[in-house]
Amino acid sequence: MPENPKTFGEYIAMHGVSRRSFLKFCGVMAATLAMPSAYAGKIATALAAASRLSVVWLEFQDCTGDSESFLRAGASPDPMTSGVTDPSLVDLLLDFVSLDYHETLMAPAGTAAEKSLNDVVANNAGQYVVVVEGSIPTAANGIYCTVHGETALSIARRVIGGAKATIALGSCAWDGGLAAAAPNPTGAVGVGQAVPTAPNLINLPGCPSNVVNVVACLVNLLTTGNWPAMDSNSRRPLFAYGHEIHETCERHYYYEHGQFVQAWGDAGHIAGHCLFRMGCRGPRAASNCNTVRWNGGTNWPIGAGHGCLGCTTSHFWDKQKNFYVALPDD
Ligand code: SF4
Ligand code: F3S
């Protein structure tokens, strides 16, 4: 057993992960990425041979919700029956992709923390992946958000400019999110607008973004060298944002049969009827959150009895406001 594992296969062997668990994880990843089940074996072979990947996580104008989502990667009361992810393997994968800088999670602070970031940028040019959480203020030369005396705008341009690839994680990093809601006093924008030349950018909107999709994208990057297939305009991966929630919602039967919840706690609500009349934005929101769900597959908003807020749609704080007012009938 190598003491310093160089590949993910060596790393999970060191942690006692069985071949069976690993293959099951790869099967779940193939399903999440909307690949045929036959691809699970190919993912297993490539992932076992994958080398470490340096990741730096930049937090700007945000609520830390995406970091919280990330930290719940392994949260599931019964992971092996949820059918979504094996938390131990998710945790190991996220450990393996060396998280070299994350202000909220890292032990060092101040100058020592900034040294970690600057070391990655200086020594790993073109090799590291940047995760951006939060929006980037551009008004008044970006002075509304600074870290260690440098504006978020300057950090983003400097760090992203030297990266192999960038993930804009969550709605704020995608299009400015809540901070960009009118009147947008800080001039908040997402990564694509703040750094138009960002190399190999992928957007994973959501408020917060779902960690299962982050893991699936990283698996795809580790095994193929590329992000999964994306929508060319929004740069969102098709496996996660390729269809409207409404199409495959577990309450769609009730929508089709005109059985709606009319008031919170009424008989229809208790029976699990459609939430359209309560303002559900599922007919407008493209997301796979009804299949991957949250907290290790435990549940998702509509499953828990609340309408979708459309958190994966662009500028949803402005465009989907009045969340409890029903959309117009078709
Ligand atoms: Fe569509 Fe929402 Fe009704 Fe589900 S609950 S069927 S997403 S309107
Ligand atoms: Fe967001 Fe709607 Fe899913 S609010 S988490 S896209 S159910």
In percent, how much strand structure appears in the residues? 5-15%
Report how far the terminal alpha carbons are from each other.
Answer: 62 Å
* Rg on CA atoms, Å: 20 Å
Which structural class do the helices and strands define?
alpha/beta
Sketch the major β-sheet: 5 strands, parallel
Largest beta sheet: what is the strand line-up? 2-1-3-7-9
What ions, cofactors and ligands are bound? iron/sulfur cluster, FE3-S4 cluster
> Could you give the count of β-strands?
9
Give a brief rundown of this model.
The chain is α/β, with parallel strands linked by helices and 330 residues long. It has helices at residues 8-14, 19-32, 39-48, 65-71, 79-82, 87-96, 110-123, 152-161, 171-175, 191-194, 211-224, 238-241, 245-248, 252-256, 267-271, 289-292, 316-319; strands at residues 55-59, 99-102, 129-133, 136-137, 146-147, 150-151, 165-169, 188-189, 201-204. The strands form 3 sheets. It has a 5-stranded parallel β-sheet.
Please provide a written account of the structure.
This protein is an alpha/beta fold and 330 residues long. It is built from 17 helices and nine strands. The protein has helices at residues 8-14, 19-32, 39-48, 65-71, 79-82, 87-96, 110-123, 152-161, 171-175, 191-194, 211-224, 238-241, 245-248, 252-256, 267-271, 289-292, 316-319, and strands spanning 55-59, 99-102, 129-133, 136-137, 146-147, 150-151, 165-169, 188-189, 201-204. A hairpin with a 2-residue loop joins strand 5 (146-147) and strand 6. The structure holds iron/sulfur cluster and FE3-S4 cluster (F3S). Residues 245-246, 249, 251-252, 255, 274-276, 280, 282-283, 302, 307-308 line the site of iron/sulfur cluster.
